[in-house]
Specification:
Blueprint lengths: L1 H5 L5 H24 L7 H10 L3 H9 L4 H11 L5 H19 L3 H32 L6 H63 L1
Length: 208
Amino acid sequence: MIDFLAKGGVLVFPIIFCSVLALAIFLERVIRFARMSNRGRGLEVKVTEQLKKGEDHKALEIAGGSDSPMGRVLAQAMEIKDQDRETLETVITHAMDGEVTNLSRYLQALATIGNIAPLLGLLGTVIGMIKAFMVIQEMGGKVNAAVLAGGIWEAMMTTALGLSVALPTMVAHSYLLSRVDNYEARLQDGAVTFIKAVSSLRSGRVDA
């Protein structure tokens, strides 16, 4: 197999490296998302219930001990929950942006691999075709179909490999991006629930 791939030229190996790197990134993200899939689910409800009971310390303990994006966002929100709403929303937004950035780690690299893999393949094809025409020139144009066919399929191999890497990489990137979007939506829902609870508590204090 190595000898077969080596016939495609030197750019075959960067393409193979891209495929290995893309697979590693995909598996790392999938494993991470699987581990945290249920972490923080329903956490905002537990935290707001404690707030309504006046157990602020317990609410902070629940949020900080969950080891989840939702928990970290709520823990930061708890620290400044008594400040004005604008400050609270700013802190929550900043915390959510940090968690989304963390969840999106390596996804840009995956997208880059999906974009450059076919370009590497195309470059390999162009280089291969240049070499084939150089052979034709050296032979004074007296070449048979077998010589041309051999050079052409070797040149086209890199394009096929590049596309073979790019297609599943872009599918993987889209899948992981959708997972990040789902987590972001969950964070937004949790943040809204928390802010509503805090606002309700403040209204109750004012009325009292």
